[in-house]
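Step 1: inspect the first sequence and its tokens.
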Amino acid sequence: MMIRIVTRTRLAALQQDVDGARARAREIQGAADRAYAGHLRTVYDLTADAEAAERAAEADRADAEIARGILERTKAQLADARAAVTEQAARIDALSRDLDSIAGAVVLLHYGKLHSVHPDRPTAERYAATFGVGLHGWGPTRDLPAAEVDWRISPLSKWAVAVGGEAT
């Protein structure tokens, strides 16, 4: 065993070193406490941010679901509208064909009154022949009013009934 002799000066120096080390340890402990408190605040803030982000994401998911529903309804309405347009186009085509088929139509007038409607002039002439009108006796009409001519053929597109039923 060894005995060491420590002088007062050396003891005072060691005490001073211990006091300095304790002061340094307190400083380091204070810095560590401040860092830990800062870390806790950061964790708390990050947790709050993450929870807020999750709430926002949930709200966005709900909004997306609403948007999906609106989109589905809009798609259904678009399909209905397309079907209606297709139906209307078919009706327009049918009416156009009907119009094309009656574009050459004529009316047979008997003393200016509508007697019948025919798809074309030869058909009207053949029909009038069943009433004794000569099949080939149709010529240019005189300038007489329609009411004074026994049989007359007029284009349907130009024929109109005036007040009193007279053809113009």
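Step 2: inspect the second sequence and its tokens, then contrast the two.
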Amino acid sequence: MPTLALITSAPSSDAAYRTDLIRRYLAATDKFTKLALLAEAARYDKANPGHSVVDELFGAALGDVA
């Protein structure tokens, strides 16, 4: 599994949640689990405008390409 570092400009109360969501997404082995996690991230983004967790999931999945 790739290593993961969440980079923020300021401490965030939701950093642990976002990191956990990304780890679960990267560890998912089937498309249904990944879709469920993307839906969870989309709901989170709708409730918490700002930096998109969905974008973070897609970026993390790119690995060294990003």
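Step 3: confirm your contrast with the notes below.
Residues 29-65 form one domain. The first helix runs from residue 15 to 27.
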